[in-house]
Amino acid sequence: MVRLPLTPADVERGRRLGALLRDARGERSMLDTALDAGVSPETLRKIESGRVATPAFPTIAAIAVVVGLSLDAVWAEISAAGQGRGATSEREAAQEPLAS
């Protein structure tokens, strides 16, 4: 498998995603969150720190379910990276479509 180099936009989306998941996790431990999502704690740590800029969709979906985020909210936050803004609320994020 050939891996393409990451663009600055990929890195920014990864940072936004990591911050969103970390914030949504709140006081819940990283270990409990990772185990409940079926991923390793190391994988979750790398995603939350932005070291994995383009994690697999099933991984993000599983973590989002565990921390109570809709995939619409996740998409709105990470797609905002290219637009220079973040979603102001989960309600606003949920109103933005995943695709047009």
Question: Mind explaining what this structure looks like?
Answer:
The chain has 100 residues and is mainly alpha-helical. 61% of the residues lie in helices and 0% in strands. The chain has six helices and no strands.
Could you give a quick summary of the protein structure above?
This protein has 100 residues and is an all-alpha fold.
> Poorly predicted ranges (pLDDT <50, ≥5 residues)?
85-100
What is the CA-CA span between the terminal residues? Answer: 30 Å
Helix vs. strand class: mainly alpha
Mean pLDDT: 82
**Shape by Cα distribution:** globular
**Percent of residues in helices:** 55-70%
| Helical segment count | 6
Beta fraction: under 5%
Q: What's the total number of strands? A: 0
Task: Compute the CA-based radius of gyration.
Answer: 13 Å
Tell me about the biggest sheet? none
Oligomer: single chain
User: What string gives the helices and strands in order?
Assistant: HHHHHH
Which key features would you list for this structure?
100 residues, mainly alpha
List the helices and strands and how they pair.
Blueprint: H1 8-25, H2 30-37, H3 41-49, H4 57-67, H5 71-79, H6 90-95
Helix pairs in contact: 1-3, 1-5, 2-3, 2-4
